[in-house]
């Protein structure tokens, strides 16, 4: 939780509590859980969440400083009314049903009041959003807040994107989007989804046990967004970079791999299905180099699209 953050798509983070429970494959190597283990905090199903008393104070410090921040941040630019972006619950989930309902009600009330900020909410629990808000008799969705859902593969897309779009229409959410990090497979976005989405964030996995991301998964989403005019942000490759970017049918790939990519297990095969076999199209070799070295350029271009 901080007034400034290195997360590429936001400016600050506020956490009203710590703790969460894994709910899908994207949670397998959760960075927040790893942090909790290092610091001795409890994590997982049935464990008590830890309330952060300083969260409210930080939120209003960001809120009250919004005007001077915008003026300072946009020196020389014609955008004096830009809102500071604040990611709510970067280390947990605002709609976690294991959180006491009074904690949620308090947090939601402060979120609604902080209307000088551009609030960014990310959830893996889109199915309970409406029920959770109804349980506290929440008023209309605040016009300064948007909602992103985590989608890591086609199965989650098919299940949750229709729910997100329905919520956007029913609750009057000003903008909605997808946080596709870690991206674990190819995802095709249906035309009716693309008409309703306002933002797509894509990124590979970082940290211990990180799974590599096939470049064509990211390229496909970039191209789908470009065709539909949806802002696209490529956050990172994660721990792995593409070492050999060519089709499996290229007659020279075996010689090139043998000559240049024997590195004592730091590289691995990766096909379009996410497996390590030679079957399937678009066979690649990926190499683990670390998040910083892998960077965030997709085909040499930095993508920083944002919803308006």
List keywords for this structure.
alpha/beta; TIM Barrel; about 30% helix
* SSE pattern: EEHEHHEHEHEHEHEHEEHEEHEE
Number of strands: 14
Major β-sheet annotation:
7 strands, parallel
Q: β content, as a range? A: 15-25%
Shape: globular
Task: Kindly describe this structure.
- By secondary structure, the protein is of the alpha/beta class.
- It has a single domain (12-239, 292-302), classed as Alpha-Beta Barrel (TIM Barrel), CATH 3.20.20.
- It is built from ten helices and 14 strands.
- The protein has helices at residues 31-39, 55-64, 66-73, 101-113, 129-135, 154-171, 191-196, 215-228, 253-260, 291-294; strands at 12-14, 17-18, 50-51, 84-88, 117-123, 145-150, 176-180, 199-203, 232-236, 240-245, 267-270, 284-288, 297-298, 301-302.
- Strand 13 and strand 14 (301-302) form a beta hairpin.
- The longest helix is centred in the middle third of the chain and has 18 residues, at 154-171.
- The two termini are 25 Å apart.
Strand and helix map with partners:
Layout: E1 12-14, E2 17-18, H1 31-39, E3 50-51, H2 55-64, H3 66-73, E4 84-88, H4 101-113, E5 117-123, H5 129-135, E6 145-150, H6 154-171, E7 176-180, H7 191-196, E8 199-203, H8 215-228, E9 232-236, E10 240-245, H9 253-260, E11 267-270, E12 284-288, H10 291-294, E13 297-298, E14 301-302
Parallel strand pairs: 1-4, 4-5, 5-6, 6-7, 7-8, 8-9
Antiparallel strand pairs: 2-3, 10-12, 11-12, 13-14
